[in-house]
Design brief:
The chain is α+β, with helices and mostly antiparallel strands. The protein has three domains: about 100 residues, Alpha-Beta Plaits (2-Layer Sandwich); about 60 residues, Alpha-Beta Plaits, CATH 3.30.70; about 60 residues, Alpha-Beta Plaits (2-Layer Sandwich), CATH 3.30.70. It has nine helices and 15 strands. The protein has a five-stranded antiparallel sheet with strand order 1-2-3-6-7. Strands 4-5 form a two-stranded antiparallel sheet. A hairpin with a 4-residue loop joins strand 9 and strand 10. Helix 8 crosses helix 9. The radius of gyration is 22 Å and the shape is globular. About 0% of the residues have low confidence.
Length: about 290
């Protein structure tokens, strides 16, 4: 039985809580990490997350959207915590970080992978640290030994690969979390509009060319969708996610979320791929049994 529902907002956080006799559920959103993208809202099974679009002020740079969580609708399942590429959500139960859908093995974890070959790093280089738009990389130097140590906050890294692009020694490799396609139909872009450029969390993905039109460099795009939210003209900007890097899972809940984030066709591709992997593994087992391995 629910004893209390609450929602609290400060400059740094949004906290919604459900307090029961024996349990206290707390969902915390770190506002400085949230970019106002659509990913959590798209998959929320209870439609508890609402995107608040920014109000355009003439002559000023457009601010990013914000989100609102309805404490009455939220089931505190933890899907938003797991799927946020920025690690902006934290779910706690009785003060401890716990995610029910992971404990039940009904949802995968995102695969976040950043590899740094520090042996390639010059002692005077901190390009990756300067390049990270989320301040997740810290470079420390041992002046005596002439070595460099690169620490990456992997739990909050969305895999934009800007650090990889800027590294002069190719010492850092980043795996995409989301892959897809983003396209701009410049014929539909309003004259002088750069709203998508203003809100994009990764520099150099969307830029304004000399002819005043927006251009796309997809190498560092994280396909968060915030650009699509603010685009004022339908069809001027299209974004499709095709692949999500995640740990293995067999779950109807994940299949439903994956279809919402990508498409029915991409879901079918993943399911087909899983079946092929199972068939290959089964064949290997049978061959091994016949050979007595």
């Amino acid at each position: 039985m629910v004893m209390k529902l609450s929602s609290t907002e400060t400059e740094e956080q949004i906290i919604i809580e459900r307090i029961l006799y024996t349990r206290r559920y707390s969902l915390i959103l770190e506002k400085n990490r949230c970019v106002g993208c659509e990913i959590c809202q798209v998959i929320c099974p209870r439609e508890a997350i609402e995107i608040i679009k920014p109000i355009k002020v003439e002559g000023e740079k457009l601010t990013r959207p914000s989100i609102k969580v309805d404490e009455k609708r939220c089931s505190f399942c933890g899907m938003c915590d797991v799927i946020c590429p920025f690690g902006a959500f934290t779910l706690k139960i009785n003060g401890d970080e716990k995610i029910p859908i992971l404990e039940k093995e009904s949802f995968p974890r995102l695969i976040r992978q950043v590899e740094v070959d520090e042996s390639k790093c010059p002692s005077d280089c901190d390009e990756c640290q300067d390049a990270c738009p989320f301040n997740l990389i810290h470079v420390s130097k041992d002046e005596v030994k002439g070595t460099v140590k690169v620490d990456v906050d992997i739990d909050h890294c969305p895999g934009c690969r800007l650090c990889e692009l800027k590294c002069p020694e190719e010492a850092i490799k980043v795996k995409r979390i989301f892959s897809g396609i983003i396209q701009i139909d410049q014929r539909k872009c309003p004259e002088g509009c750069c709203d998508c450029v203003d809100v994009c969390p990764v520099p150099e993905v969307l830029t304004v060319s000399n002819n005043g039109k927006v251009e796309v460099n997809e190498y560092c795009c994280i396909y968060c969708g915030v650009c699509r939210i603010v685009c004022p003209v339908e069809g001027a900007l299209s974004l499709t996610r095709t692949v999500i890097a995640h740990t293995p899972v067999q779950s109807g809940a994940w299949n439903a979320a994956l279809e919402k984030l990508t498409s029915t066709q991409d879901l079918a591709k993943e399911l087909t791929s899983k079946r092929m992997v199972k068939a290959i593994e089964s064949t290997k087992r049978r061959i091994g049994e016949r050979r007595g391995i």
